[in-house]
Amino acid sequence: MMVLPLATPANAQDATPPPAAEAPATPAAEAPAEEAATPPLSVEERIAQLEAANEGVDSGDNAWMLTSTALVLFMSLPGLALFYGGIVRRKNVLSIFGQIYAIAGVAALLWWAIGFSLAFSEGNAFFGGTENAFFKGVDGEPGTLSTVSQNVFAMFQLTFAIITPALIIGAVAERIKFSAIIVFTALWLLAVYFPFAHMVWGGGLLHDKIKAIDFAGGTVVHMTSGFSALTLAIILGKRKGYGKIPLPPHSVVLTAIGTGILWVGWYGFNAGSAGAADGAAGNAFATTTFAAAVAGLAWGACEWIFKGKPSVLGICSGVIGGLVAITPAAGFVTVGSSIIFGILGGVVPFFAVAYLKKMLGYDDALDTFGVHGVGGALGAILTGVFGSEEVSSLVADVKGEGYNLVLEQVKAVGITAVWSVVATVIIAYLIKFTIGLRPTEEEEELGLDLADHGEHGYED
Which range, of 1-5, 161-165, 361-365, 422-426, averages the lowest pLDDT? Predict the structure, then answer.
């Protein structure tokens, strides 16, 4: 925070101009008695006055949070849309874009109406209250963060509420109705995302009772979406022809471009979660970079060893795996530890995608669970292992209170997984027995671009 310079008596004396020649003297009796009796401010009083003047929104912190908000939104639109859109077949590329744009609209409306309040106002262990419903009190004054305006903080958090349900569609791509996605998103935000944002970041259960830490969303974003995605994919069933005919990506180029956008946007995601343009943001920026870079190499190396060649799609998936793994830890671990996050963030999701999926037989179309569910859980537990007291005072506080941070992280992982699965089962079957989840076989064969939107992604 900027502090204004203090003026000392010596400075004031040096700055006093010489008296004008032959200026008439003013009789002492003519000076107002009140002015003569007013003592000068002491140094302590002047410091207090300046500190009071500097309280409130810090322009540097606010500017960084505005930038981070734009970066995280850029991750969804167009980053995630390109990443997912390239992996599906060409007859479904527009459906991915349409679903993500629709999710942004649903999330924005709910966030304004009640979501921000349920996540960040005072409440109980699971939900906040309604004091900020319809953005009441969400203005340009400091709020949740002391140096950032509440409206900027609320918009930053909205971008997280957009990308989290958008991640889920990767598991059910090419076989879920557009109307089902809209209804699912609304119910899932209310039942899963808003409570977990409150439980972890709003002073709820996973912050107050269970001393888990999550810097930027390992549990709140990646685990909730990953486990929900797996559950929804199983309930929905496999794609038509899955395991019988090839279902290759239609454009790895789009996916590679989307990966680059996601990587850059992730600096807003992780470094922005520091809430200020400070050293914690710098540490998160550095750990994010190294984890992503190393994970891309690690996944590629695994493919080279086990499959003969490192694919570009695999390297891109590794980058995302590293970003997911470091997310809960970005501001809590050293750069050296982030290398380990990168190695494991590339290797562990690789085995989940390449072997666990085949072993269990589920159709996670774009590997949301393998990357985000597995990677998020991995990152959350590793945060407990490598959280550094030298890097973060929060880590020091939790350990200083006698808690086993690894155990607390495991508890959080278990609660997140169970809650996400149960809530998704209820929501999915509610939609299935009302408006339905899947298109008809004919519509699926035709492609969701035409079936849902009446458009082609490409003109032949």
Answer: 1-5
Note whether residue 40 is domain-resident: no
Range in 25-34, 180-189, 232-241, 347-356 with the lowest mean pLDDT:
25-34
Is pLDDT of 51 > 60?
Answer: no
Cis peptide bond N-terminal to 39, omega within 30: no
pLDDT tens sequence across 126-155: 999 999 999 999 999 999 999 999 999 999
Does residue 118 lie in a domain region?
yes
Residue pair 157/135 in contact (Cβ under 8 Å)? The answer is no
Residue 27 counted as domain residue: no
d(CA 434, CA 180): 10
Average pLDDT of span 30-45: 54
The model's pTM is: 0.88
Domain that holds residue 400: 62-453
Number of structural domains found in the chain: 1
The answer as to whether 15 is a domain residue is no
Contact 165, 110 (CB under 8 A): no
pLDDT attached to residue 52 = 52
Residue 227 CA to residue 219 CA, distance in Å, equals: 10
- Looking at residue 41, what is its pLDDT? 66
CA distance 273 to 346: 23
What CATH number is attached to the domain comprising 259? Answer: 1.10.3430.10
